[in-house]
Amino acid sequence: MTETTDFTPGLEGVVAVETEIAEPDREGGVLRYRGVDIEELVGRYPYEHVWGLLVDDDLDSAMPQPEPYEPARLTGNAPADLQAETARLGGQWQLGKLNEISDAQAREDLGRLSSQMMGIVARSARLADGVTEPVPDDVVRRGSTAAEKFLLQWRGEADPRAVKAIDTYWICTAEHGLNASTFTARVTASTGADCAAALSSAVGALSGPLHGGAPAYVKPMLEDVAAMGDPEKWVVETLDSGKRIMGFGHRVYRAEDPRSRILKRTARELGSPQIEIAEQLEDAALAELERRHPERPLKTNVEYYSALVLDVAEIPPPLAPAMFACSRVAGWSAHILEQKRTGRLFRPSARYVGPSARPLSSLG
Ligand code: COA
User: Fold this and answer.
1) Which of 250, 256, 335, 338 is catalytic?
2) Given a cut of 90, is residue 3 above it in pLDDT?
3) Is 314 assigned a catalytic role?
């Protein structure tokens, strides 16, 4: 019997795996994928090659083209559709169990699934827009990048600004170490389940508002601030009432979140109509948070400018978690493969704190 260690709620600070994929550098405010700073990737390589870097450690490799596939029964609720359809693909494609297939086969399954998952989100978003007819395959195939294909499959057209917004957002959020959904993917993979089961369970974990949904709150907040016309006053009143300012603070980073820096630049370049008010609110919030929490740096996080970039592409706020899932297929796939190659079945312990032994009659 292995010795148990102290209980740490939420496993914060507990090292559960060793990884070669990425880990946020909390003090330096840098995020590197396989050692490469994401600043160097954005604008140089499209998302699908960043997928190749993360999964294969090779920028010449890429997520494959999606193959023709007809989702079974979409509802228009993208995270639920994505989770259900991804699990269904395991059966449809008769995927092998991770502990019975080769690494090369697992890599192939993950590639097929990843590109199909983007298609499922696009089709679900199209249905949410009230359109049931799919866009013809030859139109989708005209897209030269994954982001362009995604928009074509959703709307039948792809505005270049929207393509750039989505590509940048996907690259910035493709991987971020052992967060809740990635951990979930690894736990499922560690049981030897197939790749579709591992990816669909990750989607379930991501669908919760504490993980994937914060950009949805930023846009209405900026509208409030604009309506009031006084960001400093808005910040003071919000903090005095005990509320948090969405898009600030981070569990890991103590310096500026590097993804926020890139997304801010992108929002400006793409002419986001909310960039001015966002920058005014950011200045006011950073100053006041610093004054109130001198002991703890509370900087702008990824969600703040993500909201503006997604807005440029006219992504409705409720679709934000599914957009996040599209980007994370790269990180999840890389972790599922790493788990298969180097990992061990997860079986943590729980400390029992329930009633001590008692007779059934005592419940009567
Ligand atoms: N606005 C105002 N105060 C904040 C704050 C924010 N965005 N983030 C943290 N704080 C304050 C807390 O009120 C707390 O103050 P207290 O000690 O006086 O109670 C202190 O900073 C520490 O907060 P804590 O929740 O322990 O920090 P954390 O590092 O665990 O939390 C977040 C990280 C992201 C959950 C937190 O910063 C937050 O809620 N941010 C807003 C939501 C958000 O942007 N989410 C997206 C994350 S990518």
Assistant:
1) 250
2) no
3) no
